[in-house]
Amino acid sequence: MTARSADFVFALHSHLPYVLNHGRWPHGSDWLCEATLDTYLPLLEVFHRLAAEAVPAPVTIGFTPVLANQLSSSVFISEMEAFFNQRIAACDEAPASLAQTGDSHLLPLVQFWRNRTVRLRDLFDRIERDLIGAFRALETEGRLELIGSAATHGYLPLLARDESIRLQLAVGVSEHRRLFGRSPSGCWLPECAYRPRGPWEPWPSAPRSGMRRGIEEHLADAGFQFFFVDAHLAAAGKPLGLSGDPAGDPIVHAPAGRVAPTEPLRSPYRAYRVGRGPVAAYVRDPRASMQVWSRFEGYPGDEWYLEFHKMRWPGGLKLWRVSGPNVDLGSKQPYQPENAADRARGHAEHFAHLLASIAGGQSENREGVIVAPFDTELFGHWWFEGPEFLADMYQALVRQRPVVNPATGSRHLLQHPPRAAIRLPWGSWGANGDNSMWLSEHTAWTWERLWPLEQAFWDAAPNAIASPRARPVLAQAARELLLAQSSDWQFIMSTGAAADYAERRFQQHCSDAEGLIAALGPGRDADIEAAQRLAEELEQRDRLFPNIVPAVAAALGGSRSLVVG
Questions:
Q1: Angle (CA) 17 169 256, round 5°
Q2: Residue 486: helix, strand or coil by DSSP?
Q3: Which of 72-76, 245-249, 555-559 has maximum average pLDDT?
Q4: Which residues pair with 11 in a beta bridge?
Q5: Do 562 and 187 form a contact (C-beta atoms < 8 A)?
Q6: pTM of this prediction exceeds 0.85
Q7: Less Cβ crowding at N or C end of the chain, within 10 Å?
Q8: Cα separations (Å) of 254 from 191, 373, 432?
Q9: Beta 187-188 vs 198-199: how paired, if at all?
Q10: Cα–Cα distance measured from residue 17 to residue 508, given in angstroms and rounded to the nearest whole number
């Protein structure tokens, strides 16, 4: 790398909770199908186009194990076929309805959506309906890097047992290897949530615990080399709130809401070793992230971009544009795809120049790195033009070399091993930079049910693993426990969107896990046959993580047994 230059790591985090066999609309498998049609297929199309044009686009992208399992499921294939048919039918029905309402001027947009849906359905067929295989092929070709995550996106700092953290990570590594063919180097910590080594007292009703190992120690045991944190954890800036709105002062939020002293300012433009171990943390750059993510200050709020919230019913077609700040839904203007595409190209050029400005202004001449991590679903689903922006951005970055050098997470660390080590505080990339989106007076009851459930599972696991009759029951109990631990349920409850669905799903998985675990207790041999039948039924509904028993054994075995075959 030349002086006054920096690598650029663009990271995408793909995740949805397990929704197959748990409803369709408005909450259920339609979430997965929408993400596929709006985001995963358009991004795949963009990556294929950039490859054909020989434009480097070394995205670092992760698919959580729970999402990857769903995208590999035959149930998903069936749901996706129905979803394509539904969207095309909505386009075919729209002309007659628009003519009746005097909105025939919107007909070209209906054709735009129909052509796009058919094109993406054809892409889905060309890849033999195997999204995971298509992204795996791109990594094999050296086009991008696939990183891992915890099994079901459990909020690791709040899990009461280290065995639970080890299980989330062991399943994550095992499933990544099974589905993508290699072990991941990078890990996306769910919600970018981190906890250092130290006492664990997250809530007054939490079980008593002594000193706990830091999250980075668990990551090292699982074989991970790097993860991502928000800027405020490295004391390099303010936490970014929901939708990129600035949130709070640049302070470190301690567990249970206590405010810890601010750490000395550190640059976000370098990777750091965390603690005394080998695992590195990448720091989210506030400037670059805000520019892309914020609906208030960033690109997605541009007047020419597609309006997410206004839809035509039936069918859900989006035919209008943002139209300007504070324009109510009734006053939105028709969408103009060509103008939106022009704006995406202009914003991509602006972003490339912004990165060059950041690179030229930072002082780490040899190991500087600008890190911009986002939820994958921002690109396409929430911000329709996002995939095209991404393609235009990488084309624009070709003209910014060698000032800005796109790189994957692993490649930067290989060329620039981090020399500085830091101790990170508790925190996340949530709205307040702390745990409050997941643990508050509103959601504490979920943890007060999960913590005893963890204890009961790990009490029963050693004997159950040794019993061939009990092992299938233990396997499904582990799946239900992991599904109950998904951070999505508390997040949805906290935001108020689909809270009833989240509460029902959480209660359901807890109840199913409790029923299975009860049959594994001492003196319950008479219950094992009924529990086996229940486990078989639940496995048909929640069919994922086929190699979970070795992962349970690895989690029981401790820090040196996490990598399972």
A1: 75
A2: strand
A3: 72-76
A4: 60, 373
A5: no
A6: yes
A7: C
A8: 16, 23, 11
A9: unpaired
A10: 14
Using DSSP's 3-state secondary structure scheme, residue 95 falls into: helix
375 annotated active-site: yes
Q: 148 near 173, Cβ under 8 Å? A: yes
Classify 403 as helix, strand or coil: coil
Query: Which of these is catalytic: 139, 375, 527, 539?
Result: 375
Single-letter amino acid, residue 331: S
Query: 507-558: per-residue pLDDT in tens?
Result: 999 999 999 999 998 777 768 999 999 999 999 999 999 999 999 999 999 7
Catalytic residue among 38, 79, 163, 191: 191
**DSSP class per residue in 110-169:** HHHHHHHHHHHHHHHHHTTT-HHHHHHHHHHTTS-EEEEE-TT-B-GGG-S-HHHHHHHH
Is the pLDDT at 111 greater than 80? The verdict is yes
Q: Letter for the amino acid at 376? A: T
User: CA torsion 129→131→135→137, rounded to 10°?
Assistant: -30
Domain architecture of the chain: domains with CATH: 6-422 (3.20.110.10), 444-557 (1.20.1430.10)
The three-class DSSP label of residue 62 is strand
Identify whether 92 is a catalytic site residue. Answer: no
Q: What percent of the chain has pLDDT over 70?
A: 92
What's the DSSP call for residue 38?
I
What is the Cα–Cα distance from 349 to 355, expressed in whole angstroms?
A: 10
Rounded average pLDDT over 195-216: 95
Per-residue model confidence as pLDDT tens digits over 324-353: 999 999 999 999 999 999 999 999 999 999
CA 107 – CA 109 distance, rounded (Å): 5
* Token pair for 133: 């295989």
Strands 211-212 and 198-199, sheet pairing: antiparallel
**Strand pairing report for 421-422 and 60-63:** unpaired
Q: Enter the tokens of residue 164.
A: 């639970």
Q: How far from chain centre, in Å, is Cα 404? A: 26
DSSP 8-class letter at 26 = S
